[in-house]
Every structure is written in C-alpha cells, then in structure tokens.
C-alpha cells in the first residue's frame, strides 16, 4: 500500500505533464516544449541522489550524456541507464536519484545518454542515439561482458531494443539487462490496458496511444524497434523485468517476458502488487521502491558473476 508521501509525489508526477498534450496537438502557441520538459526534469529531480556520488558531463560518440561516479568504486563493471519519458520528455538531469542509487549500490560507474527526443526527432532517432551511445562504450575498450543495460518505461523497452540492434550490427552484447516498467508494446493490446484503467495513477490508454503516435511519426506501432514484443530477441543475455501490478503496461510486460522465454532468453519477471509505473524513483519514500532496486542490483551482481566464470 502506498503511503501518503508517495501518493502526493505520484500526484505531482501525474500533473507535471498536463501541458504536453496541447503542445503536441499544436493548440498551445505560448508555452514552449522546453518549458514543459524543464518542469518534468525539476519534478523528477526532487528524488534525491544518494550521498557519495558525483555527476560529470560526457560525450558518448556524439550523444551527450552524464557519467555518475561513486566515491567508493568497487568494480570495473558499468551500467548504461536509459531514461524513460515516452521518448518525448526526460533527460539525465532528472535521473540523478535512480542513476546515483545504481552507482552507489553497485559501486560502479553509470552512464546515462541524453538521446534526442520526439516529436522534433521522431522514431527511430531516440533508439539510434542510444545504440550509438552503447557502441561508443565498446569503442572505448569497455568489456561488453561487464556492461549492464538498465532503464525504465521507454528506456525499459530500449534495454531490449538496443541489444537487438547491437546484435544486428555485430557488436558484442552486454552481460544482462534490467527493464523496469517497460513500454514494450505500442499497440497497447494487453488486457491490463483495460482492466487497470483507473487503477494506474500515472497513465491512461488514450494518453499512451497519443504519446505513441507522437513518437512514432509515420511508423507502425508494431515496428520491432519500437515494440520489442515483436522483435527477434534470440541470443540476448539474461533480462530482469520488473513491473507494477497496477500498471496499464502489466500485460504487455508479461508478454515481453514470455516472448523472451519462448526464444530461449533467460528472463526473470517480477510483478510487484499494488505498485505503479517506475516506482523505483521513490526509494526514499516507499519501502517497495528500495526493495525493487535492491532486487535489481542482486540480479546485476549475479549476472556479472556468471559471465566471470
């Protein structure tokens, strides 16, 4: 059950993008998109970074980003964290909390690419930018077997999509991936899109349909680079999927897990009762958020041990 502080924080999150729809529809000629995006970043930035981490700008092969470095560096493994925001909002500056938590809890460097956003840069640009950022890590000499991909929402989908694209380009694959509340099927055909309507405090099906179209441009929602439930996922490394039971995206996340398993990818699926979209952000407010982070860290550590054998 959500406590009152979490409920208030989720309410603020839900309200933070109220101005986005009119802009995307061309109805708002006063408010610039940059103002909506900056407000969204400020809202997410209320989730504090832990002590003992620093943040530095980095250029990831032409894709700007942020490098998070823990004071207590314990491993040469790295995480590439891919932020969400429906491919339309979001930037690393709003993700110091979750990026910092992964850096601190793992004792590892965390890279967060700042990919270009739709609708100015529609599909597939955000995906291609993120693939380029991963490719840059390989070019720097990082051992792919010591790289972890993680992300939430659109970023959770890109955890899978980037791996598929990397495989198709002949790049070595990372050790594992953590997909949090993945926006895995832009057709929105899962039953939870209906039976969780009203329970999900952050999303509506109509809203998700609208955001998907703003991202996709002329592409179809079943394009495998937009919806990994339709992708050829053979040969991918182990994946952890964490999804809140109250999410509209629940059924499609479960479909993604089944799709991975059907194609002989080792997959762990965690469904968290009563939780909402990307609840991990609120680790200082909600016990289940910290517990989910800890579970994902344990998965990452186990995956890194497996490839070291």
Main sheet: strands, sense, barrel: 8 strands, mixed
From the coordinates shown, what is the CATH architecture?
A: 3-Layer(aba) Sandwich
The run of helices and strands is HHHEEEHEHEHEHHEHEH
Rounded to the nearest angstrom, the radius of gyration is 18 Å
Q: What is the overall shape?
A: globular
Q: In the CATH hierarchy, what is the superfamily?
A: Alpha/Beta hydrolase fold, catalytic domain
Arrangement of strands in the largest sheet: 1-2-4-3-5-6-7-8
Structural class estimated from helices and strands: alpha/beta
Low-confidence segments? none
Distance between the termini: 40 Å
For the secondary structure, the number of strands is 8
**What is the fold named in CATH at topology level?**
Rossmann fold
The domain tally reads 1
CATH class: Alpha Beta
Q: Assign a percent range to the helix content.
A: 25-40%
Strand content: 15-25%
Mean pLDDT: 96
Structure in words:
This protein has 309 residues and is of the alpha/beta class. The chain has a single domain, classed as Rossmann fold. Helices cover 39% and strands 16% of the residues. It has ten helices and eight strands. The protein has helices at residues 4-15, 20-24, 33-44, 96-106, 125-139, 154-168, 192-195, 205-216, 250-262, 287-308; strands at 53-60, 63-70, 78-82, 109-113, 147-152, 176-180, 239-244, 267-272. Strands 1-2-4-3-5-6-7-8 form an eight-stranded mixed sheet, sandwiched between helices. The longest helix is centred in the last third of the chain and has 22 residues, at 287-308.
């Amino acid at each position: 059950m959500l406590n009152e502080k979490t409920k208030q924080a989720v309410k603020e999150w839900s309200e933070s993008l109220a101005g986005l729809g009119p802009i995307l529809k061309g109805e708002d000629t006063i408010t610039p998109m940059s103002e909506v995006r900056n407000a969204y970043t400020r809202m997410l930035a209320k989730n504090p970074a832990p002590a003992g981490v620093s943040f530095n700008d980095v250029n990831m092969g032409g894709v700007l980003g942020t490098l998070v470095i823990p004071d207590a560096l314990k491993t040469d493994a790295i995480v590439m964290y891919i932020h969400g925001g429906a491919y339309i909002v979001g930037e690393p500056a709003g993700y110091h909390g979750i990026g910092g938590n992964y850096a601190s809890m793992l004792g590892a460097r965390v890279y967060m690419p700042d990919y270009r956003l739709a609708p100015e840069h529609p599909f597939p640009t955000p995906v291609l930018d993120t693939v380029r950022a991963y490719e840059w890590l390989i070019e720097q000499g990082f051992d792919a077997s010591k790289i972890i991909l993680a992300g939430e929402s659109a970023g959770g989908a890109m955890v899978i999509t980037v791996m598929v694209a990397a495989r198709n380009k002949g790049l070595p694959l990372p050790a594992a991936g953590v997909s949090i509340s993945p926006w895995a099927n832009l057709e929105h055909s899962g039953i939870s899109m209906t039976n969780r309507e009203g329970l999900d405090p952050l999303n509506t099906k109509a809203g998700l349909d609208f955001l998907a179209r703003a991202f996709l441009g002329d592409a179809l929602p079943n394009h495998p680079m937009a919806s990994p439930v339709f992708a050829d996922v053979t040969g991918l490394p182990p994946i952890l999927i964490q999804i809140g039971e109250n999410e509209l995206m629940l059924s499609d996340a479960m479909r993604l897990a089944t799709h991975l398993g059907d194609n002989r990818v080792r997959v762990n699926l965690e469904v968290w009762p009563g939780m909402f979209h990307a609840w991990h952000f609120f680790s200082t407010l909600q016990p289940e958020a910290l517990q989910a982070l800890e579970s994902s860290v344990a998965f990452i550590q186990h995956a890194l041990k497996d490839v070291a054998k």
